[in-house]
Structure formats: C-alpha cells, structure tokens
What does this fold into?
Amino acid sequence: MNQINIIPKIIHDKFAARIIMDDYDIEKPIVITVVARRNDGEYNTQILTYPTSGVDYEGNVRMVFFDVARSHVCQITSVFINGHEVKTYYTDVPDLDMQARYDDSLCRYDKKVNMNDIRLSFQVLETRDPKVLQVLDESEWGLLEDRKAIIEITTPGMSDPATLFLGKNQVNTFTSLTLGLNCFNYDDCNVKYLDLPDGIYDIKIIGSPSTYNFSRKYLKTDLIRRRLDRLWIKTDILCEDKDKDLIGKIQEMETLMAVAEANVRLDNIEAAHEIIDRVGGLLEMATNCVDC
It folds into this structure.
C-alpha cells in the first residue's frame, strides 16, 4: 500500500507543503487539496493534480503557499485527496490503494533567528494635517506577533489616555473621534472630525505581556503652522515692499518651534512648554499687527 505524507516546510522564505510518497509511480492521477494558514490570519488553498502530464517532478513534489517573515508562524490546517478528507494520522483513501496523513505542526522561519528578540518602536508621521495623528509601528514583535497589542495616547490637556488596539507594522491613524475628543464639549458631538489640539502627546505601545512596551512624546504643531502659513502669505515676500518685520517674526517662531521639538525629543518637557508658550505670544502679536 502506498503511503503519502504531507509535511510543512519553509523553503527559500516561503511556506510550502512537501508531498512524500512511498511510490511516486502512480498510474491514475490524484487531486490533492491543501489549506494552510499564517498567524496574521491569511489562508491559502492550493490544488495539485499528480502526476501532471509533461511535468518531471524528480521526486520533489511540493505546494507553495505564501511568503514568510521572521515573525510568522504557519500551519497546514486541512488536506483532501480526491475530495476525501485526510487526517493527521494515516487515513485510507477510498477507491485507492493508499493511505495519507499530514503534519499540522507549527512551522516557523527556518533561518537562525532568535524569536525572543523583541524590540518595540514607533514613529509619529508628520502629516501637517491638524485632524489626524498617524503612528507607524516599526516593532520587531517576535513571539508576540500573534498576540494583541494596544496603544495609549494622552492628548494635551487630558489626564487619562485613550486606549486603542494597535495595528502592528503599519500606519495607525487617529482622529478626534477615535481619541474620544468629540464630546468633550457638547457642541462638538455632531462633528465627525475636529482639529486635534497642538501640544505634547504622550504615546505608548504595549504588547502582551505588558512588560513589553515603548513610549515617546510627540509635539504636534499643525494648527500653529497653519496660522504661520497665513502669515507667510501676507508678507508679500515677492514684492519690493514686503513686510520685513513680519518675516523676521515668522522666522523667529519657526526657529523656536524647531528648538521646542528638539527639547521634546530629548525629554526636556518643561523647556519645550516654555518655548511653545513663547511662540503663542509671538503669534498673537504678529497676527494682530498684520493690518496695523
């Protein structure tokens, strides 16, 4: 009796199933259907008719499913031969003198990678859009890849963070709606997207277990920059009678904001607050004097 084993393998960064037979010389073709899954939720079904006329397998029969990265875990979930279900133990295939089984073991990346090497990190993207906050997760999750992660965002002026699920290794976009700011004032409840406040945001991503976490602060200045854009337009910089005093004030504010951002990156939060307050005062002065 011919016995068939369907074995999971990772070959050249791809998850595959090897079809190993006691006897590859089969007179009547068989149809093998294999379903595989990856730990990010992706499923793939491959169907192989063996033997296929004109194909020289040379004893190497395989089915390839999907690409595999270091954080992925893959598995064969079901097998059918000629429409009959195969189990993880040797199963008789009706009308054929053969038995078949498959290995449902979890299969990890085959390179010498330490899956315990877990490094959490993220970047906040500069969008210049006051209505959104975008966070790009750049973490190496290792064995935590298939576990849920959360992100905590404390907006300026709020004492408690908004807690949301984190999309791993992708851009996460947050708005006033997702951050729970819409009903902070009654009149805002019917507005879908409000401008997010300028200021220092405290952001933290947390894995499972929560001992794996990473946090950083981010200075959002999109509303200030919008007001500066309006001032730049009013300087008539291409004209001979351009407003040099206003240009000087704008340049001073641009410099101060760069210094404030540097202080936030170095965790000098008090200094950053003082500088932003100074920018706010200069901005009010420049705005009120444009038409003087």
The CA atoms of residues 197 and 219 lie 10 Å apart. The first strand starts at residue 2 and ends at 11. The chain has three domains: 2-108, 114-220, 221-292. Helices lie at 222-234, 244-265, 269-289.
